[in-house]
Amino acid sequence: MEAEAAGSPRSRAEAASGRVVMVVERCDEAALTLSRQLSEFGYPVRIVPGLDDLPEAVAQVRPAALIIDQDVAAGRSLPALRAVAGFDCPVLVISDRDDLDSRLATVRAGFDAHMVRSEPATRLAETLDWLRQQNRADPYRADPYRVVIIDDDRFTSQVMALALQRAGFQATVVTEARSVLEVLRAVAPEVLLIDIHMPGCSGIDLAAAIRQMPGFQHVPLLFVTTENSPEHRMLAVRSGGNDFLTKPVPPDLLIATVRARAEWSRQLNATLGRLSESGERFRAVAQTANDAIIATDESGRIIYSNAAAQRAFGCDGRELLDSPVLSLVAPAHRSRLLRLLNRRGQGSGRRTAELEASNRCGGAFPVEVSVSSWRAGGRRYFTGIIRDITERRRAAERLEDARRLADAANAAKSVHISRMAHELRTPLNAVLGYAQLLQRHGPLDERQRACVAHVLSAGEHMLHLTNDALDLALIEAGKLRITPSALDVAVLVGDCLTLTEPEAVRQGLVLRNETEGLRLPPVLADSLRLKQVLLNLLSNAVKYGHKGGTVTLGAELVAGGSHLCLSVADGGPGISPAQAASLFQPFYRLPDTSINVTGTGLGLSICRLLVEAMGGEIGVSSTAGTGSRFWFTVPTAP
Ligand code: ADP
């Protein structure tokens, strides 16, 4: 958790704002959640690890309020905490419990409020606003309550204004009804005191007129009059008055009544302000969204549509308002939308489906609809985010067409390569045959013998390349025939080692067979292809292994005995992880290891395709400089 130093610019700014809330939570996660929520409402949060750390924290930054976890505060009273930590701000207890016992515990310990964690963050912010206003000792309350007194009696109104000003209110007096509107607009009072009897204008009419002004519907109106008859009171209440004070009003009663109304008024204004702010924020986001957003009531009638929705469905907001949302969906898809709306058991979770929407001109277009539901005032509402997926569908179709084309081109290429390889092999075999005849039966001098040896070596390399290309083309064209049968691994391993032995000897390498003596089960594979894979790995190990080293062939059962893993390890130069990733791609040869070794770069890619076609996997583990271990798996025979 990050803690800000007391003297840092941020902490100085926070302290100056007078809104720092200190949080003492039982766990970091809960503290961070609170911190995030409160910062959204303009309350910077200081997380304090425990109650013992409060005195130091309070000495650094004076808090506007404190929030303490109920379990952390258990057994402590607010006066005791205040005495030790030296703070005078309100303290709110936060808890998971909402029962009467825990609420009573909060009250008995003297704390100012009890909040339940599951309540929305707006409630917490409202409570904090409220507590800060209640806290008369709040040294930061630089914003006194605004009161306007409308009374033609200069003396009485001045006396009341003075009493209120002494108690910290900002009191403005209006003695002439004509200037009332101007003053009201300039002062934006939180409480209005109105004399009922004024020459030329009754206070009751004036109150009714003020109530009709935008922004003044909720301002508390207190009538001040010498009349105290029940009829008068009734009239006053009917015209929108909230209270009735009889002249002369004792200053204490005046101050207490005005303060109570002013606190309520400010709290209400803060709540309304927040509501309208969040409404504006939602509207701004929704109106600029590229996706259509539509909200409906429980019966599916549209109660809101954003600009994108109006564009997509070709009608303005008024046309959409109150119309059934089902009318925006193609008839064949309406039952699906209904199912989406009524899907139970998901609370307010999001549900998504692809549907066919229809606009006002009858045009249909595919959409992806995400629906979420919410509750307000005991009713259920739905919000749908509707994304036009015409382009997405087209792109997917284009991609599919391109894939089909590429597959066809690939198949044509494979057919072409396999034909060419066949055609090449016939003359190549003739070249090799005649070169062998020349080599055997001469007569050749030294230079001619060397030339024939070159022809033979190049011809053999070319034949190898042609055979590999043919294999690859056959596999890619899906024409490779794999005929699996139960094979004895010991026989297969023996054959491959015998074939590799002469070259290993030539290279000064020792072949070690670690499968000897193991009782390996038969495997289910194509005998020819399995040998091809193992021979390729062995011949690579011999080709790329260090002279005088050892090549080790091992085997073990893997995947619970369903597969046998055969491995070939060498003490060669090894392969880095980055190189290993490309090793099984056609024509890839490592620049360092293969520089003086003949090869085509096709062997391992063919091995991969063959192993996969037989139901196994192939891979390599290696550390550069310490050799490689190539392995592959094949299914064991049932
Ligand atoms: P080729 O051996 O014909 O070049 P492969 O597909 O069998 O083709 O191998 C591809 C590349 O992988 C080789 O060129 C070589 O660089 C590298 N390689 C294969 N086996 C080993 C090994 N045991 N040790 C080091 N490098 C290897």
Describe the SSE topology:
Elements: H1 9-17, E1 21-24, H2 28-40, E2 45-47, H3 54-60, E3 65-69, H4 70-73, H5 78-85, E4 91-95, H6 100-108, E5 113-116, H7 121-134, E6 146-150, H8 154-166, E7 170-174, H9 180-187, E8 191-195, H10 203-211, E9 221-225, H11 230-238, E10 243-246, H12 251-288, E11 292-296, E12 302-305, H13 307-313, H14 317-320, H15 334-342, E13 351-358, E14 364-376, E15 379-388, H16 390-441, H17 446-476, E16 485-487, H18 489-506, E17 510-513, E18 523-525, H19 527-544, E19 550-558, E20 563-569, H20 577-580, H21 603-613, E21 618-622, E22 628-635
Parallel strand pairs: 1-2, 1-3, 3-4, 4-5, 6-7, 6-8, 8-9, 9-10, 17-19
Antiparallel strand pairs: 11-12, 11-15, 13-14, 14-15, 16-18, 19-20, 20-22, 21-22
Helix pairs in contact: 7-12, 16-17, 17-21, 18-19, 19-21
Bound molecules: adenosine-5'-diphosphate.
Task: Give a quick rundown of the structure.
This protein is of the alpha/beta class.
